[in-house]
Amino acid sequence: MMDTGDLGSLLETLCPMFVLVSETGRIIRVGPTLQKLRPDQPIEGKEFLDVFELIRPRAVTTLSALMSLAGAKLHLKLHDTPRTALKGLIAPLPNGKGAVINLSFGISILDAVRDYALTSADFSGTDLAIELLYLVEAKSAAMEASRSLNLRLQGAMLAAEEQAFTDMLTGLKNRRAMDVVLGHLISGNLPFALMHLDLDFFKSVNDQYGHAAGDHVLQQAARIMVEETRNDDTVARIGGDEFVIIFKGLMDESVLSAIASRLIDRLQKPMVFEKNPCRISASIGTALSTQFSPPKSAEILNAADLALYEAKRKGRSRHCLYSTLVGHRQGDPASGVRLD
């Protein structure tokens, strides 16, 4: 007959979460993994029901009653915190010499591994928990790889979307972005002003100093327009030397005229490229969305365009408001403007 010491050594190899109890319910020996749950509190020598709370079977309240249930499945919790849930199977020893209770974590194994820093060495080599841990680890790695891939894809999509709405030379919005902004403002019934700006004498810069100089002028002009507008405003390059500025909620024509004057003053200052002074100016036309009922993008753009060409007709380096043209007779040859 195997003595208690030999039995304990055997159980440590096969069942690292066993509890060996005497016929009186005192814990004689515990497996190393089970003791690892309470490293500072020796479990051996304590009463089994003082360490573990028996959840099921509910009718069992004493250890003697428990030992009579050979092969019974148990559900327990540790009395003190953390109150880890455990599952168990009881096997009474011959001649009423006590019992062996083999415990496992059940579905709480993931929490237990995290809370107690357990490793594969803490489980029996035949325990399915090891396979479960490997599966969880593999799933976690796959999910992390999937999240990483999704983040990269989202970043690529955002970058592509941003590129689709950006003028690559100046960093401003492009015509597509302008159309989207106008659509949102009009559908939301939000008032706005639209300023159409054209660079005068830009072709001369290209002809005299080359396209690199022209690109430099466009970039400097874009910088000036951004500096003279608010964060909520939209500055877009819609053609070679044509720009549109959309002022959300700004309807004061005197303020708009002041902004246009600052733009004209700054843009007509020479922009030096490779020691060559590049000279341009700007003609600007402005229309308000509230001048149309209901407002339509094409009509507002056309109105700003008409005002722009009126500014050019009057000598360039000027700003013209569409409202100043409304009083002109439709199709008046003297005005040079056709109002539909």
Order of secondary-structure elements: HEEHHEHEEEHHHEHHEEHEEEHE
Global shape: rod-shaped
The low-confidence runs, each spanning 5 or more residues with pLDDT under 50, are: 329-340
Count every helix, treating DSSP H or I runs of 4 or more residues as helices.
11
Lateral arrangement of strands in the main beta sheet: 2-1-6-5-4-3
Mean pLDDT across residues: 84
What value does the Rg take, in angstroms? 41 Å
Protein model, in words:
With 340 residues, the protein is of the alpha+beta class. Helices cover 41% and strands 21% of the residues. The protein has eleven helices and 13 strands. The chain has helices at 4-14, 32-36, 48-51, 63-67, 109-116, 128-164, 175-187, 202-209, 211-227, 253-267, 297-313; strands spanning 18-21, 27-30, 52-56, 73-78, 85-92, 99-104, 192-200, 234-237, 242-248, 271-273, 276-278, 281-288, 319-321. Helix 8 (202-209) runs antiparallel to helix 9 (211-227). The longest helix has 37 residues, at 128-164. It is rod-shaped, with a radius of gyration of 41 Å. Mean pLDDT is 84; it is low at 329-340.
Question: Summed up, what is this model?
Answer:
This protein is an alpha+beta fold. Helix content is 41%, strand content 21%.
Features:
alpha+beta, rod-shaped, five-stranded mixed β-sheet, 13 strands, 11 helices, single chain, disordered C terminus, six-stranded antiparallel β-sheet, 340 residues
